[in-house]
Design brief:
421 residues, Rossmann fold, Dna Ligase, domain 1, 29% helix, globular, binds adenosine monophosphate, binds glycine
């Protein structure tokens, strides 16, 4: 029997838990490792631990262990040092994740905007600004306006401002008080319409569009309150009718992939398109160089086939769409978040009820093993994902299964999947 393919997944959250489950369910039965991983990923999925503490030691470990494929779950290492994919390439390890220069599509909003303008990909008009005065001039009294800090801001760098007062407050904090440190800012046209998340697997000039999803970013029901990492998601091919999907493919996905090729960016990996469906058609709000979290948890159960071989071949520049197939049904993911989220998170609350969940997948996002029991260890704690032939069936199942899990201070939006666009 040939040796199993060895895969190292980079990341530690619910998205990586879902990816690892899907990789392990692949017909090729790979051996999976995860860095830095989590108690749940190692214990429940049997993913091997990686003896490394940073990018350098991770590369050394992968070389020593004979890793056949590195899969970038989260984005941070793609733009650390020379970049995860670049370092893998130097070591001859195929990497499912884009090189440093291509990952600027997510890391720099201004780079992404220039890329879209250059390749005529529909997006909101925007102006890059270096300081407070330039930003004021770019806004030019037009409200609502969208202000985007171009740097790391822990998900708090975007403000949709209905009026001068809110815009001024954000500008002062970001450009004068430098709450997020030095960096430029984009003043962007405010777009209106429902949002949808589109995912493509990209390898050079080839791509495969996966099942679309919608995430629920706000903490509160009815999409109220502050933004979070995502409180749930719904995924189905039926979220977008064939005509809309064709338009998204021809106006957004295909020109992006052609642009990446033209610019020599050698993109390999999942590419996430955050879209707004405006009256003028689909427009890009943002690119992410990875799968969405929690969209990945909702999408993965709808995917069958050999994800491991698909990613390995894709990373080698040989995308094989026929290795995957997609169910027609619906999938709903409910997040259970800890007390205090999203302003803070509480660790150490004991979690019960796992054994009562019989008809859903449970992925761990922020848990740890504490004296033999699972406890909270982060903002988003668990993702409970259920499927069904209809939206209603999947929604009811996801909520009823999620309600069986308990911990103190647990927060769950009851309208996940129920609230349409
Ligand atoms: P981001 O942090 O880039 O994911 O943006 C957070 C949210 O801000 C998005 O999900 C949108 O709801 C909103 N947003 C971003 N850009 C725009 C825009 N140009 N027009 C309207 N809303 C936007
Ligand atoms: N669900 C949004 C994201 O992954 O960025």
């Amino acid at each position: 029997m040939p040796c199993a393919v060895k895969i190292c997944v980079v990341g530690k959250g619910g998205r990586e838990h879902a990816l690892i489950r899907a990789l392990r369910e692949s017909e090729s039965q790979p051996e999976v490792f995860c860095f830095p991983g989590s108690d749940a990923i190692h214990e429940l999925e049997g993913a091997g631990k990686v003896e490394a503490r940073d990018l350098d030691s991770l590369i050394t470990w992968m070389e020593f262990t004979g890793i056949d494929l590195c899969v970038a779950g989260e984005e941070s290492y793609l733009v650390t040092g020379e970049g995860l994919a670049n370092r893998c390439a130097q070591s001859g390890i195929p990497c499912w994740g884009p090189p440093f220069a291509a990952a600027q599509l997510e890391a720099s909003k201004e780079f992404a905007k220039e890329f879209m303008q250059k390749h005529q990909i529909p997006t909101g008009r925007a102006t890059g600004c270096a300081n407070y005065e330039e930003a004021q001039r770019a806004i030019d009294g037009q409200y609502p306006t969208v202000l985007k800090f171009d740097g790391l801001a822990a998900g708090k760098g975007v403000a949709v401002c209905p009026d001068q007062e809110s815009a001024d407050e954000f500008l002062r904090e970001v450009m004068l008080e430098r709450r997020f440190g030095e960096g430029r800012l984009l003043v962007e046209e405010c777009l209106e319409g429902p949002e949808i998340s589109i995912f493509a697997a990209v390898s050079g000039s080839e791509y495969l569009i996966l099942t679309p999803a919608r995430d629920y970013k706000r903490i509160g029901e009815g999409d109220e309150g502050p933004n979070t990492g995502g409180m749930g998601a719904v995924a189905s091919r039926q979220l977008a009718d064939p005509e809309l999907m064709k338009r998204i493919e021809s106006e957004i996905v295909a020109p992006t992939v052609r642009g990446l090729e033209k610019d020599g960016l050698n993109y390999k990996g999942f590419l996430y398109f955050g879209l707004m469906l405006t009256q003028q058609g689909p427009k890009i709000i943002e690119y992410n160089c990875r799968f969405g979290d929690p969209e990945c948890q909702a999408v993965m159960p709808l995917v069958s086939g050999d994800l491991a071989t698909f990613c390995l071949e894709g990373a080698k520049g040989n995308l094989q769409p026929n290795l995957l197939s997609f169910s027609e049904g619906w999938s709903v993911c409910c997040i259970l978040a800890s007390a205090g989220y999203p302003e803070s998170s509480r660790a150490g609350d004991l979690i019960s009820g796992f054994d009562d969940v019989t008809d859903a997948r449970v992925y761990h996002a922020g848990t740890k093993k504490q004296e033999g029991q699972w406890a909270t260890n982060g903002g988003r704690v668990l993702a409970v994902v259920a499927g069904g032939d209809t939206r209603e069936e999947a929604v009811e199942k996801a909520h009823s299964e999620a309600s069986k899990i308990h911990f103190e201070g647990s927060q769950r939006r009851r309208d996940i999947g129920r609230l349409h666009f």
